[in-house]
TrEMBL record:
InterPro entries: Anticodon_Met (IPR041872), Met-tRNA_synth (IPR014758), Met-tRNA_synth_2 (IPR023457), Methionyl/Leucyl_tRNA_Synth (IPR015413), MetRS_core (IPR033911), Rossmann-like_a/b/a_fold (IPR014729), tRNAsynth_Ia_anticodon-bd (IPR009080). Belongs to the class-I aminoacyl-tRNA synthetase family. This is Methionine--tRNA ligase. It comes from the Bacteria. It is an enzyme of class 6 (ligase). Is required not only for elongation of protein synthesis but also for the initiation of all mRNA translation through initiator tRNA(fMet) aminoacylation. Pfam families: tRNA-synt_1g. Its EC number is 6.1.1.10. Keywords: Aminoacyl-tRNA synthetase, ATP-binding, Ligase, Nucleotide-binding, Protein biosynthesis. GO terms for molecular function: ATP binding; methionine-tRNA ligase activity.
Length: 511
């Protein structure tokens, strides 16, 4: 059994969770569940980033202490994980003592090695982004992009990390580790970024300007700036878990690839004598109804409320089916309902209800044993399709092509429903002919087995619904998932439920 360590980015607590947060957690959860199915010993981390000037300002605006503010918003992200059935093994907060301890140890180590120095800095500062800016960050007309908000010129002493001296090492690392960033074209963006000389990295803020942070272990008058605080969380969580570092994948959005995760983070680790992560998995952004997501304009999806209305599995299914990992995608109510009705309700839900209904109607609610003599070309075709589907889905999942894997799985569900139409067990059940009765048993057994197998492929994406399907047909979870994917007669003799409503028709208007 191999260790497999996967993380999400930690979410900044200056705002409530949105669709982008939900997608990243579901995507990472799907990977974690799939790797567990494949036999890996998985450790899955998510959490929140709680320090910084924006948190300090937001807490003051509400008239509460920063820690209380963080506690309240952090709980929203925990609640999101619970609502979306995220199977994380740990939830880290950067205000926890275990995290502060590791941050201080790394900073002190680097300071003792001479990798951190103090210098006076004069330049432009963006409060909104909490970062110093350079002239290259300006618009062509000399103004500052709106993303930076109010920009002021300041002069102050700070501590700097010798980032620049590791630039050549990082370029070489990227060239010798071509799978460091997925999708691969994102790696080219990192290499392009590194064609310009790096500046050393300012890693502190004076306490007179920012109190809400981890004090530098070598100078109590300064606190740690975001990068040596937030990025270190990935390492903090497994310092007491030997064998999990380096991380197999950090799952992040494309906006924080360069420079934080692809430049600062590996260089910080290299300087500290710690192995860099194996890979960064970079996903795209969601638009809403074709426009940029914005809470202020109402173009916004509250993932918890949406899951409450339509079901957690429906939301999980849609975001994984609709987005190709690495690309951008659009979330619309119309497209969601189309997927919901076509795939979940009319296809999978229909197969479940047909299986239960006809097993109860023609076999006393007990799944019969297939009659080998009655198995013909239709059954052979379906079994052959299953083997092809199973192998393709595993390969696609290993390459993070979950949207295509789902398409293949539902094609098999469609083929099973088509098999039922051709076999027409409702007609066979009216006949007293022994051959028809044998064909009836075979068709009922085939329907149930096809449902069991398709269900086994869907577990990582819709865990709640698949658990219910297992229950209503009496399927058991095997210790070895690959054993579950072999066509057989495991369900023979199982008592099935009378009915199951997994995906009720949404009572809503399309938009």
């Amino acid at each position: 059994m191999s260790n497999f360590y996967i993380t999400t980015a930690i979410d900044y607590v200056n705002g409530s969770p949105h669709l982008g947060h939900a997608y990243e957690k579901v995507l990472t959860d799907v990977i974690a569940r799939f790797r567990r199915q494949m036999g890996d010993n998985v450790f899955f981390l998510t959490g929140v980033d709680e320090h910084g000037q924006k948190v300090q300002q937001s807490a003051r605006a509400k008239g509460i202490a920063p820690q209380q503010f963080c506690d309240e918003v952090s709980q929203e992200f925990r609640d999101l994980c619970a609502k979306l059935e995220i199977s994380n093994d740990d939830f880290i907060r950067t205000t926890e003592p275990r995290h502060k301890k590791v941050v201080c140890e790394i900073l002190q180590k680097l300071y003792d090695k001479g990798e951190i120095y103090k210098a006076e800095y004069k330049g432009f500062y963006s409060t909104r982004q909490e970062q110093f800016l350079q002239d290259k960050d300006r618009n062509p007309d000399g103004t500052w992009p709106e993303i930076f908000g109010e920009v002021t010129e300041i002069t102050e002493s700070n501590y700097f990390f010798k980032l620049r001296q590791y630039q050549d090492w990082l370029v070489d690392h990227l060239k010798t580790h071509e799978d460091f960033v997925f999708p691969r074209y994102r790696q080219k963006q990192v290499i392009e970024f590194l064609k310009e000389p790096l500046n050393d990295l300012c890693i502190s803020r004076p306490k007179e300007r920012l109190e809400w942070g981890i004090p530098l272990p070598f100078d109590e008058n300064f606190v740690t700036y975001v990068w040596f605080d937030a990025l270190t969380n990935y390492y903090t969580a497994v310092t007491e878990k030997p064998g999990f570092w380096p991380a197999n994948f950090h799952v992040i959005g494309k906006d924080i690839l360069v420079p934080p995760h692809a430049v600062y983070w590996p260089i910080m680790l290299k300087a500290a004598g710690i192995e860099p992560p194996r890979s960064l998995l970079v996903h795209g952004w969601w638009s809403i109804n074709g426009s940029k997501m914005s809470k202020s304009t109402g173009n916004f999806v509250d993932p918890v409320a949406f899951a409450d209305q339509y079901g957690t599995d429906a939301l999980r299914y849609f975001v994984i089916r609709e987005m190709s990992v690495g690309q951008d995608s659009d979330f619309s109510q119309t497209q969601f309902l189309a997927r919901y009705n076509a795939d979940l309700a009319n296809n999978l839900g229909n197969l479940v209800n047909r299986t239960l209904n006809m097993t109860n109607r023609f076999a006393g609610g007990v799944i019969p044993e297939a009659d080998a003599g009655a198995s013909g070309e239709l059954e052979t075709e379906l079994k052959t399709l299953w083997e092809k589907t199973r192998d393709e889905v595993i390969t696609l999942n290993e390459g993070f092509q979950f949207h295509i894997a789902l398409e293949r799985t539902f094609s098999f569900v469609t083929a099973t429903n088509a098999y039922i139409e051709k076999r027409a067990p409702w007609k066979l059940g009216k006949s007293a002919e022994p051959a028809d009765q044998a064909a009836l048993k075979t068709s009922l057994a085939t329907m149930a087995e096809s449902l069991r197998l398709a269900n086994a492929l869907l577990y990582a994406v819709i865990p709640g619904a698949t658990a219910k399907i297992r229950d209503v047909i009496g399927a058991k979870t095997e210790s070895n998932w690959r054993d579950e994917l072999v066509w057989g007669a495991r369900l023979t003799g199982n008592k099935v439920a009378e009915s199951a409503i997994l995906f009720p028709r949404p009572q809503t208007k399309t938009s």
